[in-house]
Design brief:
The structure is a homodimer.
Chain A: E1 2-6, H1 10-22, E2 27-32, H2 44-49, H3 63-70, E3 73-76, E4 78-84, E5 89-94, E6 99-103, E7 106-109, E8 113-115, E9 128-130, H4 134-146, E10 151-155, H5 159-170, E11 174-179, H6 190-202, E12 205-209, E13 213-217, E14 223-227, E15 230-234, E16 236-239, E17 243-245, H7 248-252, E18 276-278, E19 285-286, E20 293-294, H8 299-313, E21 327-331, E22 334-340, H9 343-348, E23 353-361, E24 372-380, E25 386-393, H10 400-409, H11 414-418, H12 434-450
Parallel strand pairs in A: 1-2, 1-7, 2-3, 7-18, 9-16, 10-11, 10-16, 11-12
Antiparallel strand pairs in A: 4-5, 5-6, 8-17, 13-14, 14-15, 19-20, 21-22, 22-25, 23-24, 24-25
Helix pairs in contact in A: 1-8
């Protein structure tokens, strides 16, 4: 059987490797349009922050290793342009300008995502950069090395923008961040996003939300980011508005697209074509809380989906329950995490959400070195089901969110979560874990609406 | 209604405070045999490590505050000797030598636990100390201040012994630890307990497992801990063999005792007497994995059980599902955590346990500062249910165990846990959280036994 994979990053290489382990006789070819496969994309901001490290440190396994040690035919510089489902072939062009055609029995589309670049003048100027592929990271490192970058503008205030603002500040680069939307972190309750905002501003990053981008000008010594009522000068501009799924060739082949134009897949990762799977940032997923489709491109899902595709094409049926939208990022000295639905999402999905925000301590009463942990918890008034949580703090946030993520997978009620037996020792938290305190407060609030409150 | 509470620490004061909030008209009396109520017992080793801090820093609320601000009649120095269930009274003697009698409508026994002191000669000598009550902590601090303690022996190698060995080493005191059992941390798989052992030994603590205690001698300049084939000299001896439930007065009143001689309670915390509840270290609990009774005296359960008693006596019926035996402790630079059953416990409860131990990284590939995390995961071969986990590492252990604890409460299978969407960012872990890697390996191992293995 011929297993053909388009895309050689997380989802594609996970699928190829596992399929080979599942069935060593499988004929596996991976077509990757860039020259890089299998690297830690999420590690790029941290690598860029450190001028002593090479971007290639992030490569987990070279294409040649997959070829020579695993027997997987990895072809880099191979850009697929079309899929032909009836003929079961794909066609494209290599970096050397050669046309190619490959046939398949089973095909995996793992084309990832691309940074959204506004269709405005000046976004193709030298020094206007984005970060998604390893080559993007390579270009940013090279640009920082070759130029005296004293001032940078980051367009966008999402995870990547914030991680990159920390990376650039580590090199003492002055940073302005600008976005057209009026709210800093719109998915977060203001009380908590304010804590993150303050942290960023404390590190001398200037935030400009609510300015519509017009264009970037190159005139003069510096780049000029021109917005309505605001002009920001910079030696470098990072475009970090977000990413979009690379679903064009799938769409061109007549495959169904779903939410956010991602390739629609079922729980087996199968597209609308019996022989074509999709995984990673190009495809959608079920959300375990809403039960509906969602598109949240993150690394764990990409790896997991790649493995599931490998199992499914090798005859070991796997259905993925879906994702909870769990994510964490670090920005300066803060850990920021979320899982499940936001208030707005919960309302949109027809829940009757109730929320609390609690401020507790990261360590026990009287234990030195404690800081504040903010926890938002959201439950459904009617079913009492736990719907989501967000957390901000200097320590103990990144892994704490996972307890709630597991509860979401288990469809627990707020009461059931509140009754869980979590670990306690003074250096690591209060007796009542901050998430348990949040659950307790949320229960009180939900009970006070429904029936006379006892306390 | 008269609500009488015996014992003024975690469970007792939690119950009294919440009962008063539930029902401000309630007549509440707390009888505490020592002079201290409501303190952070688990914080004592850290407080003892810091000679600049007073032990009373650990007091959360003074007895006078409960009396004056909350209207709870807290009587310290009141040692209850007998409960008379038919008359609904308790009798005892105060520190001033006065006999007292109190009547109740509902009674809570929250008498806690006491350190186990071997019935051997010399354990009552000056300088032979134990740590459970705040007064024990006070005595240790006073002893360290008044005496030149250069060398200490800790008898026992449990949580408290290990936390105290770190505390004493912080004061540059030479520490030997001795126990009669042959194994360092018997509940832990050797591969992992070896990591803890090495950490302790790296900090110049000498471990002597497998030496039967004979007596302690006072002759000469130092105390002598005399074991079979071993004599250890010390300026101070800490007895940390473990604790036992203070269930004597309950037993004397004819109440049923359960496992480990703890007071037997149902899910409402009710004892075998309709009007008497028990909570905290003196009472037992259901284990959510085995479904059977267990006795694991820990702070969160004590607080939670206190609250549940308050709700139950105030007419708001609460049943506690039970505990998962989740615990964490810090010893030098290591975090050590567990939840659920050990292999031995799982076998004893009739499961068919399978286990894996995985060694992964605390941070992502190529992210600086990573250390090793060891994860043990145990599942049931037959039902595939997750039964327990243990973890050791320098970072990211304390809160990571909670995701598994929640899964145990949710009765998840190993497969269901493996499918959970956990947070990822390079500073906090690999893409596949170490616990997911463990689940994946455990699944492979379990599947290889049951059916032909695909990979």
């Amino acid at each position: 059987m011929k297993f053909l994979v388009i895309g050689g990053d997380a989802a594609g290489m996970s699928a190829a490797s596992r399929a080979k382990r599942n069935n060593p006789d499988l004929d596996i070819t991976v077509l990757e349009k860039t020259l890089d496969v299998s690297y830690s994309a999420c590690g790029m901001p941290y690598n860029i922050a450190d001028s002593n490290r090479e971007i290639d440190d992030l490569v987990v396994r070279q294409a040649s290793v997959f070829r020579d040690k695993q027997g997987i035919n990895v072809l880099t510089g191979h850009c697929v342009e079309s899929i032909h489902p009836l003929k079961k072939t794909v066609t494209g062009i290599s970096l050397q300008g050669k046309n190619f055609q490959f046939s398949y029995d089973k095909l995996l589309i793992a084309t990832g995502g691309s940074p959204i670049i506004p269709d405005l003048s000046g976004f193709d100027l030298p020094g206007v950069l984005a970060l998604k592929s390893l080559d993007d990271g390579r270009k940013i490192k090279a640009y920082l090395k070759a130029n005296t970058v004293k001032k940078a503008v980051i367009i966008g205030m999402g995870y990547i923008g914030l991680e990159m603002c920390e990376a650039l500040r580590a090199g003492s680069i002055e940073v302005d961040m600008v976005k057209s939307g009026p709210v800093f972190l719109p998915w977060m309750e203001e009380e908590m996003s304010g804590v993150v905002k303050k942290e960023v501003e404390t590190h001398k990053v200037t935030l400009h939300p609510g300015y519509t981008l017009k264009k970037i000008d190159a005139g003069g010594r510096r780049l000029k980011v021109i917005c309505s009522d605001l002009i920001l000068e910079a030696d470098m501009v990072l475009v970090a508005i977000g990413i979009k799924p690379n679903s064009e060739i799938a769409s061109g082949a007549g495959l169904d697209l779903g939410i956010s134009h991602a390739i629609a897949v079922d729980r087996k990762l199968k597209t609308s074509d019996e022989n074509i799977y999709a995984a990673g940032d190009c495809s959608d997923a079920y959300h375990v809380v809403s039960g509906k489709k969602t598109w949240i491109p993150l690394a764990l899902r990409a790896n997991r989906a790649g493995w599931a595709v490998a199992d499914n094409i090798c005859g070991k049926a796997v259905e993925l329950p879906g994702i909870a939208g769990t994510a964490v990022f670090k920005v300066f000295d803060l850990e920021v995490a979320r899982t499940g639905l936001t208030m707005k999402e919960a309302l949109n999905f027809g829940f009757e959400p109730e929320k609390v925000i609690v401020k507790t301590r990261s360590r026990a009463h009287a234990h030195p070195g404690a800081s504040v942990i903010h926890v938002l918890m959201i439950g459904n008034k009617k079913s009492r089901r736990l719907l989501g949580a967000q957390m901000v703090g200097k320590e103990g946030v990144a892994h704490r969110i996972n307890a709630i993520a597991v509860a979401l997978h288990g469809r627990m009620t707020v009461e059931e979560y509140y009754q869980t037996d979590l670990a306690y020792a003074p250096p690591f938290g209060p007796v009542w874990d901050p998430t348990l305190t949040a659950a307790n407060q949320l229960l009180k609030k939900m009970n006070s609406g429904a029936s006379p409150q006892l306390e």
